[in-house]
């Protein structure tokens, strides 16, 4: 996934932006899964990305799932039809959604594959991504503890006219009743703007 | 011993020295001897003292040692005594032990003797037992022989029995086959019996029919007699028919006349009604005429009045037109009023604006006046100063002139000239300043004049606007005398209401937008624009699927284990291996299937029997009904019943009834029923009783038959 950036480091194209955003999701989701303990900690390995020590999974099944989703997401980002990417965390037994990490994607639709690259350096973008991932890591402190075994799922909000591809299916929004929302930081590649947000179920007695 | 003082002397004068030394040595030897003796003495004294000391020491030690030795001795004595005591004790023990040993030896000997006795006894017993065993062996052999015989006998019996059993089995099979055959026959017989019963019923019917036919034959015989009588009558029939046709024609004529009559009657009643209505109409007409005349008179009067005044409309239609015009005019006036109100509003606003302007202008004017005053004061002051300066200048000139006069010859001329020049320059400067001030004054005066002009203009404008306002107000009041204030208030109210509504709506809009944003935060979406998709093989779905599969598996396992537990409980622990359990479960299942099949067969058989019984019962019931009521009741279709009387003259004389949804019975018309019209009328139409009708029919038919007989 990593390292396929555009040749000039101070400008960015639509393709490059999609690549960067998808890469952020890959590492961000990996980090999220580690931080929230959805998969056991020993199945993660350390790697340095965005000048941060991040953890990525070594579970082959999860890896193939994430990479295939990211490939598809990249394609849709190039088509500029993605509105949101949502990571839901639900209990394994009752399928009750406990956490919902929502990443709103605003796309500058005036940018096409043929237009001139925008001026934005990679280090600047990486700084933004770093801040978002740091905040996600820090938000573990205020989120309620996940007491039961949990599973995660990825929902992608797209435009209505998209033909659902094979292996994909339509789904509900997996909303949480009695939730508390917290807005997180956002970053932009000057073509795609990603607003992060988390909503979580209010536990009894809180 | 002293050493020689000078060595050189020794070398040079050895001889002297030897001599000297010889003398000296002797002397010295003697001295030495004495000294040695003294020394020896001293040492001896010391030694003696030492020895004495040692002796005393030894003595003390000796004493000490003796004391210690005494103590030791005492201790040893004590120990010895203790030991002697111990020894005596031990001796006592030894004696006791010896005694004990002797006793034990004695016991041992006794035991040995007893054991020897016992051994002898046991040997005897063993010999006895051997003998017994020999006897038993022999007996056993005998028994074996005898049992072999019996076994062979029993096996023979068994083979015989087997053969018998086989025979019996074959017999049984034969019997079962026979039984089946018999059962089949029995079923056949039952069916035959049913058939026989049916035949019997048919036979009864047939007998009945025969009776009927016999009756008919008898009746026909009678009728033949009657027929002969009738034949003679028949000849008369031709005439009668002619008469009949004539009568029929007459009858038809009468009927027509009757119908005409009724028609005429109806017409008459209609005409009477018409007449009544016409009379009413005529009375109404008269009333209307009166009214009309009255109205005409009124109209005439009105016209005459209108003729006097040309402005009045000459006719109601004109009046209507005029009213319409007036209404239109009112509408246009209303529009005008609206326009005027708008203009008034704008004028008012303009008026307010001009008022504001006027105020500011007045303020400016006041300011300007003040400035003007100040300027005037300044001018006065400056003039005063100018006067003073001119006076001063005149004074100075006089002084200068006097100086000039005084100092015409002196050398002060230059100085005076310079002073004069300076003074003149000063004066010029003053002049210039004065001029400047004058110019400023003129300028300010001009400005003040300008402002005054403006103020005047504004005042004029104000007056003009005031005039306009009053005019418009007057015009408005003229146009809508009184209604304006109310409508104004209404309009104001309405405006206020609308403003409030607008506010409310704005608030609502805001809250809704907030709500929308919040729901978007929660992840809600617009389904017309957005759709949510997810990878079908996502981890959550997979976990769910796995869970489902596991649950299914566990359920199946639980089921098998339950069965196993049941089997184990039944067999109470024997043969608990999984294979046997599985076999048992299979057996049980097949057994259960067999049981179910058996039950099915039984229930089918029961069903069949029940059917037979029902058929029989129904037949009986029908028969009983037929015998008791005299009617055979059939049910060819649902809700329809056909009744055939026992005494019916032909099998076609059927009464056909139909059951209505309300549960009532209706008689359907056919030939037979139409022949019974008097009974129908009497019992069904008036009496509403079907049983009475049926019994009357029965009685009728019965009486006929009996009469015929």
From TrEMBL, chain A:
Protein name according to UniProt: Mitotic spindle assembly checkpoint protein MAD2A
Entries under PANTHER family matching the protein: MITOTIC SPINDLE ASSEMBLY CHECKPOINT PROTEIN MAD2, MITOTIC SPINDLE ASSEMBLY CHECKPOINT PROTEIN MAD2A
SUPFAM superfamilies in UniProt: The spindle assembly checkpoint protein mad2
Record localization: Nucleus
Record keyword Nucleus present: yes
One GO term (biological process): mitotic spindle assembly checkpoint signaling
PROSITE patterns: HORMA
Keywords: Cell cycle, Cell division, Mitosis, Nucleus
A cellular component annotation (GO) from this entry: nucleus
Domain HORMA as annotated: residue spans: 15-198
TrEMBL record, chain B:
Coiled-coil ranges from the UniProt annotation: 48-121, 151-223, 261-305, 358-392, 420-515, 544-571
Keyword Ribosomal protein assigned: no
InterPro entries documented for this protein: Mad1
Any single biological process term in GO: cell division
Subcellular location: Nucleus
Cellular component, GO annotation: kinetochore; mitotic spindle; nuclear envelope
Keywords associated with the record: Cell cycle, Cell division, Coiled coil, Mitosis, Nucleus
UniProt-listed Pfam families: MAD
Family: Belongs to the MAD1 family.
Entry protein name: Mitotic spindle assembly checkpoint protein MAD1
Organism expressing this protein natively: Strongylocentrotus purpuratus
